[in-house]
Amino acid sequence: MKHKKILGLTLALGILGASYFTAGQAVITKADGADPADRSFIEFVLSDTQYEGEIDYTYQPLYGEDLEVNGRQYDFTVGETEGYALLTEIEGADKTFYEVEELFYNKQSPFAGCEGLPVYISHGLYLEYKDNAFYNIADGNSVSEEFVNEMAYRGFGYSGSGHFTEQIQTVSYSTKSTDTYSIQYDLPNYHGSVEGETGCANTAGAVIIGYYDRFNENLIPNYKSYIQLGNIVRYKTGTDEVIALVQQLYELMGTDVGHLGTTFSEFQDGMNQYVTSKGYTYTTANMFSYGEFSMSNYKNAVEDGKPVAIFLSGYALINEITESGTTDTISSGYSPKTHVVVGCGYRTDTYYNASGAVITTRNYLKVASGSDIYGIGYLNINSLGQIDRAVSVQIS
User: Fold this and answer.
1) Residue 168: HSE in the Cβ half-sphere, 13 Å Cα cutoff
2) DSSP assignments along 186-240, one per residue
3) Separation of alpha carbons 315 and 387, rounded Å
4) Is residue 355 very low, low, confident or very high in pLDDT (cuts 50, 70, 90)?
5) Where is pLDDT greater, at 219 or 52?
């Protein structure tokens, strides 16, 4: 087990897998032995905590389906707070990325009691290899090598929308208030994919580029992404230029190369390649704080005109919210798949009882869904699905 201490003020990273976070400039001390995986881990923790003190950490190896080392579990302390992170090595089309997939504070790792080799090959799946067989740590049952290989190909990519089932939620109340906000004129409503259902990340990237083409018109060469009618702006959709952009991002992001879909690091790398090739700068900021999605960070971003790329493992999009007397019925279409959407606004419903005390607050994120069914709609983040990553994007 490796043990190191990092004095993390900020990071200057010249490594593959950097996330283009703009958390400040970087200086590492007491880190002579830090390698690219360590540096990616440290960068992630600093962006998540905005911490400027000492990070004390150890790590141990994680294994892939071939029982070769393919990642690390980091156990660390930030100030008085303990946490763990699971990092994987992603083999992209032409480079290697080191990517933190999960990070939790004050929580025990699922691999804590592992007696054999800890095998980590896909989001939320924790396996152990012992006695010449693979076992699911969650229930102790053995799993086949065919299942392991299938999940390894799914990997840590985000691969598409679809297959919705209706989920119903209800809230009873005395009174309620609703607060809404959206980036002016919303976002381009691009949807579909290049190859089957695996094009959600590159479609989301195209949405962001199409939005910023309003302000930086060479982002999509010889093309204007919108039409202006008086004071109204409408984004073009389905044009040859948009289709070509989605295809180009599919290739730049290494989508479906060695695994299904696009990983977070591949998304970041592909976006950075595209934007810098047009003479602009691509920067992102983390919307998480101490391992949790921060609604306040998100609101600040969209109110500042910055769209937010949101990476999901299972998600729900609103069908409708029906008000009947003092009961709201929320109908959502739920998909268990991984997906990427782009946030541009929000809706917050605050419910009160007869005494005026808050019963509950429900937040919905207004998003370009990448779906031809939902278009620009609302993401239901109230106990349905999971946000893995979210970054605001600025192109300047």
Assistant:
1) 5
2) --------SSTT--HHHHHHHHHHHHHTTTSTTSSTT--SEEEETTEEEE--S-H
3) 8
4) very high
5) 219
